[in-house]
């Protein structure tokens, strides 16, 4: 039987997972593998590999997911988006991966290019992730994760509207929800409560991005619409240009955040590790007594 996301979240303790992106150079790939060797210490249930803007990393994504699975013996999921391919092309790509028993997909719409008003689906492609989930399901019994937004998706008129759309993805066959990064757990708890009130029972995994530096996190927040609590921002600003000090604040913040999530029964934590092990390993040291 092929592995399913649900296998990871029924062990009575929060499952840890890690997200990576395909490096552009061979040197980057070698560095990533040595970082992943270190990250094995946290015993991730799976590693997921992102899909670049416009489908630009299509083969890099699947090759890397296969390589990580073969070389490191870690289960891998590949991200796949509605951007850049029509149905036939999608079918060819995912069917080839299914034949290699790549059964775990993080199914997304994908980001629209920054200079356009509205997402334009490819000819014969899909506009929303729920359509993609339904299509992939019709091709093969894939296990799929979908994105959730504790602060609402940037394009959604309200959190309530976004939640209705989340329900469509779940009804189409998603097995798990992985959230966008957030820094205030109250937003997450409020979100979980609303999701559960809609009758959605699948695991909700918290996406945690350990802050590396203030300029970098500002850039990410600008893209995804998540917010930084004032107190945390102030602490980061007090470091001035000292990015190493900001990274340590990021580690401590993530330890506190994850401890609180675990104590409150979170299903899993998905680390956006940015292809680096340093912060995640320190966070693991700070939470492992609870796991
Ligand atoms: P959707 O669920 O389709 O939602 C997009 C917008 O449309 C939302 O505002 C929603 O409310 C609305 N909507 C949804 N369905 C409907 C409907 N049926 N009718 C009307 N409105 C609707 N991006 C990448 O390019 N590559 C990646 O690898 C990647 N990985 C990610 C991993 C995670 C865990 C997360 C949280 C995000 C990731 N993203 C990635 C970013 C993601 O592609 C963007 O956030 C994108 O803008 C929305 O994707 P979605 O799947 O949530 O879209």
Helix content: 40-55%
In the sheet with the most strands, the strands line up as 1-2-3-4-5-6-7-8
First-residue to last-residue Cα separation: 27 Å
> Into which percentage range does the β-strand content fall?
5-15%
Output mean pLDDT: 96
Write a structural description.
The structure is a single chain. With 291 residues, this protein is α/β, with parallel strands linked by helices. The protein has eleven helices and eight strands. Helix 4 (87-99) links the parallel strand 3 (76-81) and strand 4 (104-108). Helix 5 packs parallel to helix 6 and helix 10 (243-263) runs parallel beside helix 11. The longest helix has 21 residues, at 243-263. 41% of the residues are buried. The model has no long low-confidence stretch (mean pLDDT 96). It binds flavin-adenine dinucleotide (FAD). The site of flavin-adenine dinucleotide (FAD) has 25 residues, from strand 3, strand 4, helix 5, helix 6 and strand 6.
Can I get a quick summary?
The chain is an alpha/beta fold. The protein has helices spanning 5-8, 26-39, 58-72, 87-99, 129-139, 159-171, 185-197, 214-224, 230-237, 243-263, 278-287; strands spanning 15-20, 46-49, 76-81, 104-108, 143-148, 176-181, 204-208, 268-272.
Give the SSE map.
Elements: H1 5-8, E1 15-20, H2 26-39, E2 46-49, H3 58-72, E3 76-81, H4 87-99, E4 104-108, H5 129-139, E5 143-148, H6 159-171, E6 176-181, H7 185-197, E7 204-208, H8 214-224, H9 230-237, H10 243-263, E8 268-272, H11 278-287
Parallel strand pairs: 1-2, 1-8, 2-3, 3-4, 4-5, 5-6, 6-7, 7-8
Helix pairs in contact: 5-6, 9-10, 10-11
The structure holds flavin-adenine dinucleotide (FAD).
Residues 50-51, 53, 79, 81, 106, 108-111, 128-130, 147, 153, 155-156, 161-162, 165, 168-169, 178, 180, 207 line the site of flavin-adenine dinucleotide (FAD).
């Amino acid at each position: 039987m092929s592995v399913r996301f649900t296998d990871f979240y029924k062990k009575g303790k929060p499952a840890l997972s890690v997200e990576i992106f395909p490096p552009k150079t061979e040197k980057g790939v070698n560095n990533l593998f040595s970082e992943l060797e270190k990250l094995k210490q946290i015993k991730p249930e799976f590693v997921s590999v992102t899909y670049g803007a416009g489908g630009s990393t299509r083969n890099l994504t699947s090759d890397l997911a296969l390589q990580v699975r073969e070389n490191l013996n870690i289960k891998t999921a590949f991200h796949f988006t509605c951007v850049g391919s029509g149905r036939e092309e999608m079918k060819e790509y995912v069917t080839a991966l299914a034949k290699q028993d790549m059964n775990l997909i993080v199914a997304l719409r994908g980001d629209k290019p920054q200079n356009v008003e509205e997402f334009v689906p490819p000819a014969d492609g899909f506009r929303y992730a729920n359509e993609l989930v339904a299509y992939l399901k019709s091709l093969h019994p894939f296990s799929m994760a979908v994105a959730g937004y504790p602060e609402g998706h940037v394009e959604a008129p309200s959190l309530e509207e976004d939640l209705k759309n989340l329900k469509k993805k779940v009804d189409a066959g998603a097995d798990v929800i992985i959230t966008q990064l957030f820094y205030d757990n109250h937003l997450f708890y409020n979100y979980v409560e609303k999701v559960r009130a809609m009758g959605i029972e699948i695991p909700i995994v918290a996406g945690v991005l350990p802050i590396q530096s203030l300029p970098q996190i500002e850039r990410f927040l600008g893209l995804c619409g998540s917010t930084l609590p004032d107190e945390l921002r102030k602490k980061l600003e007090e470091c001035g240009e000292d990015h190493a000090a900001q990274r340590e604040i990021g580690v401590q913040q993530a330890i506190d955040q994850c401890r609180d999530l675990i104590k409150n029964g979170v299903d899993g934590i998905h680390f956006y590790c940015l292809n680096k092990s340093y912060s995640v390993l320190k966070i693991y040291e700070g939470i492992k007594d609870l796991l």
